[in-house]
Design brief:
This protein is of the alpha/beta class. About 40% of the residues lie in helices and about 15% in strands. Helix 3 runs antiparallel to helix 12 and helix 5 packs parallel to helix 6.
Length: about 425
């Protein structure tokens, strides 16, 4: 046995080996895409309806955005090779200014990904003796960043999602520490539900803490002034604005690789915080920059959003309602209070997850699987993501495929919802 196989075998004894088993058994992993047409994706000689994309607004295939990229490439080249600490194309500064205006913050700072923001900003803020209070349902990348902070001497505690009593206990226990971060998702990546930003912010204010909000999914979809006619709200300017809240003790992180289909992310900040992060957040110095195409697609995406973003969001909401209601009518449990276009259908067992994925695959449906330990054992789900350029007939195809999944589960006498949760149709 060579040294590489020895290392692989040693690691396969960990709990993540379960993911490898699902990967080997399901066709939904590592499929090689040959072509796309809208939200149709071709594998080998068969076309599938794509419900695994997170390009929520369809900007990845927007002609206006695509056509804007070539002039920027000719001006800046395909990739600005300086780290941001040395030099930044003016595209960065234009985008940061426009983002700040849209979210109503003093300033913003762009780095290539949300993950890089986490691993740069979280350790920088807590230093060697701060404290991090992490929502157990928050994205794994925040946990990885928090571990880096812990390795430098900061303390890491976790609390159950929406357990404000436990969070307050932790805040009280660490009240004298001047560096406290509460780490939460803005829009949760498995349910589409929103963090209660006002309640978190008010609680944090009482104990001198900062609320750090990762809105990688919500940015571009969730926005200000929600109404019955437009439940997501307007402008797609994030979950903080959705609650008509401010950034007095909130650091808001917006992901641009999903709704805006651009390899970039940003953090809301004051001018002083921006200056601090430039010196203390290592990715500003040590990371490669965003590609020119991504910076230009962001700028044009902001213009497209201003022109007809509301039409796209309204269509996205209608398609998501149809999918959620149709699948719930089949008897499945979906934890989603917002009709955000993340639709996680509970299965609760890896064996049934694999079989269900094969049924969906045979019906020409591509989704994302969430096996243990990506989620808690017993919470295994079939995760659907919907975009504004999916078509109604694709939603019909999706619901029909899930009716076959239901038939299979009923045949093997498997439950369609967790015993501990009552299945309800939410309005």
């Amino acid at each position: 046995m060579n040294i590489f196989d020895q290392v692989i075998d040693a690691n396969l004894k960990s709990q993540r080996a379960d993911i490898r088993d699902v990967l080997d058994a399901s066709p939904m992993f590592d499929a090689e895409a040959c072509s796309i047409e809208g939200r149709k994706i071709k594998f080998n000689d068969k076309w599938f309806a794509d419900f695994a994309s997170c390009n929520y607004l369809g900007f990845d295939l927007n002609d206006e955005i695509i056509e804007s990229i070539e002039p920027s490439l000719k001006k800046w080249g395909v990739h600005p090779s300086w780290c941001r600490l040395v030099a930044s194309p003016s595209l960065y500064l234009q985008a940061e200014e426009q983002l700040a205006e849209l979210i109503k913050a003093e300033d913003t700072l762009i780095l290539p990904t949300v993950t890089l923001i986490h691993i740069g900003v979280i350790p920088a803020l807590v230093g060697k003796d701060g404290v991090m209070l992490l929502d157990k349902s928050a994205h794994m990348t925040m946990y990885e960043a928090a571990k880096m902070g812990r390795d430098s001497g900061a303390r890491l505690h976790s609390f159950n999602h929406n357990d404000f009593d436990s969070l307050e206990t932790l805040l009280k226990e660490n009240e004298s520490n001047p560096r406290k971060l509460i780490l939460v998702d803005g829009t949760y990546s498995m349910t589409g539900n929103y963090a209660d930003v006002p309640r978190l912010s008010k609680l944090a204010e009482r104990y001198g803490a900062i609320v750090y909000v990762d809105d990688a999914h919500g940015w571009g979809v969730v926005g200000e002034k929600p109404s019955e006619a437009m439940p997501y709200g307007f402008k797609g300017n994030g979950v903080v604005r959705h609650f008509d809240w401010n950034y007095d003790n909130v650091l808001y992180i917006g992901g641009l690789s999903k709704a805006y289909s651009s390899l970039a992310a940003f953090i809301s900040c004051s001018k002083r915080m921006k200056s601090f992060l430039k010196a203390y957040a290592t990715p500003y110095d040590l990371s490669g920059p965003c590609p020119t195409a991504s910076l230009q697609s962001l700028l044009t995406g902001l213009a497209v959003n201003d022109k007809y973003g509301e039409i796209l969001r309204q269509n996205l909401y209608n398609l998501t309602c149809k999918a959620i209601n149709g699948i719930r009518d089949l008897g499945f449990y979906i934890d989603n209070d917002t009709y955000f276009p993340i639709v996680s259908v509970w299965v609760g067992d890896s064996e049934h997850l694999i079989k269900a994925s094969k049924i969906l695959w045979d019906n020409g449906i591509l989704i994302t699987l969430a096996p243990y330990p990506m989620v808690k054992r017993g919470d295994e789900t079939l995760r659907i993501t919907i975009t504004a350029i999916n078509e109604e007939q694709e939603i019909d195809q999706l619901i029909k495929a899930f009716s076959e999944v239901r038939d299979y589960l009923e045949k093997v006498k498997a439950p369609l919802s967790p015993v501990s949760k009552e299945h309800t149709t939410r309005s």
